[in-house]
Write a structure and sequence with these properties.
By secondary structure, the chain is α/β, with parallel strands linked by helices. About 35% of the residues lie in helices and about 20% in strands. The chain has 2 domains: about 210 residues, Rossmann fold (3-Layer(aba) Sandwich), CATH 3.40.50; about 150 residues, Rossmann fold (3-Layer(aba) Sandwich), CATH 3.40.50.
Length: about 425
């Protein structure tokens, strides 16, 4: 019999280190040539399987695949596409089976967050429901750090490092100008329902009264009066105030401060604009001059300042996914298990996909300060190791050098219409 091939795809918002996981998958699969054939990467996530747009990674050189470890974004293209249940859309699942059969795909690796792990879990049921043997492994990824059962999520450590560094640097700028100019700086960061990224900005603090002075978390209902009082007291004490706000900051009734009035492909409320909203509120009520910024894609694309810990874990989880499949495992996701905080030590574990899918892990209460505007020592012990270490990409001409793959598609074997 021909060796079974593998399908790997990236899903959801990309990160500075998701390609490191891809590198781990492909390099490890090449080491198991006797047990695993070609790794086909889906062009634009699961859509690559549905559209039979399969990238032949065997056409890429050893050097190019290795360079993925240093390259941000999604090398094969990602997507926001959520499979319905097999009962709701059996035709879609049959198409997946037809494509997998046509290309002898028996291993399925899906690299993404909570919604993506739901997709991986649904695909894992194909063998049972449609009589096709398929080993399915989810690979964790999310800058939001909100997947359960893993100590941390690849992508988060690097975003945390970027946000902490940016907060410290911007605060120095504001402090130098506050006497006669800007007194307020608001940085908006990602985080829909979980405030891990905003919380990580507190790592910028090294002395009392250091920025950020206020952190707004989705887990803490926004109280306008308390917020403005805190801003005013901060300016009185320091001469300026630096605020880091999660895009998912919300009122007590659960409505978002920055609801854009639309939904994304996963059905989530489209967010954006909490920084200018807060800045305008402060100007209106307190009269302070302000500046604001939205980290947006910059925070998740900043491979030049990635956390070495994050890069190492992203690669290790991609490698572990292949090894779990070779062992015969299916419907599982490799995880990070923390052994100790200081010195920071970790190992790999695994969890069933059914336990991970569509479950969000929020900041625990003991990580949030009593006033709701900061973090505790326990949170700092958890967060600090995740930003440790530098893993700079190669530079040329003053700029980081990132690989661009050939992304050569294999010939289609099925009708285009399905």
């Amino acid at each position: 019999m021909l060796k079974a091939n593998a399908f790997y795809a990236q899903s959801g918002g990309v990160t500075a280190v998701i390609n490191a996981s891809a590198c781990g998958v492909i390099e490890t699969a090449r080491q198991y040539k006797g047990q695993m054939g070609t790794v086909f990467a889906g062009r634009n996530g699961i859509l690559g399987a549905l559209n039979e747009e399969l990238i032949d990674t065997s056409k890429e050189s050893v050097q190019s695949i290795a360079a993925l470890r240093d390259t941000p974004s999604g090398a094969f293209g990602s997507c926001r596409y959520k499979l319905k249940s097999i009962q709701e859309n059996p035709r879609e699942y049959q198409r997946l089976i037809d494509v997998f059969k046509a290309h002898n795909i028996r291993f399925f690796f899906y690299n993404g967050g909570g919604d993506s792990q739901d997709t991986a879990n649904k695909v894992s049921q194909l063998g049972r429901d449609l009589g096709y043997e398929l080993q399915c492994i989810g690979i964790p990824k999310t800058v939001d750090n909100d997947l359960p059962f893993t100590d941390s999520c690849p992508g988060f450590g690097s975003v945390a490092k970027y946000v902490a560094v940016s907060t410290r640097e911007a605060a120095l700028d504001v402090a130098s100008m506050c006497e006669t100019s800007t007194k307020i700086f608001v940085l908006e960061v990602m985080g829909r329902h979980a405030g891990w990224i905003a919380a990580a900005s507190a790592l910028a603090q090294s002395r009392p009264n250091d920025a950020p002075h206020i952190i707004l978390l989705p887990e803490v209902p926004f109280n306008q009066a308390h917020f403005l009082k805190k801003v005013a007291s901060c300016v009185k004490r320091n001469g300026y105030c630096v605020i880091v706000a999660s895009e998912g900051a919300q009122y007590a009734d659960g409505s978002f401060l920055a609801d854009a009035g639309s939904k994304d492909a996963f059905g989530h409320t489209q967010l954006g604009g909490v920084a200018p909203m807060l800045a305008a509120l402060i100007k209106s009520e307190l009269g302070y001059k302000y500046h604001w910024a939205v980290a947006d894609y910059l925070q998740r694309a900043a491979r030049h300042i990635a956390s070495a810990t994050d890069v190492e874990q992203a690669y290790a989880l991609g490698k572990a996914a292949v090894e779990l499949a070779i062992e015969g495992k299916t419907a599982v996701m490799p995880t990070i298990v923390r052994i100790s905080d200081d010195p920071y030590r970790w190992k790999l574990g695994e969890v069933k996909l059914s336990r991970v899918a569509n479950v969000e892990r929020k900041m625990p209460k003991n990580y949030i300060s009593k006033d709701g505007f900061g973090i505790t020592a326990a949170a700092r012990r958890y967060l600090a190791p995740l930003i440790h270490g530098e893993d700079y990409p190669p530079y040329e001409g003053g700029l980081p050098q990132y690989v661009r793959l050939k992304n050569q598609l294999v010939a289609k074997k099925l009708p285009v219409q399905w």
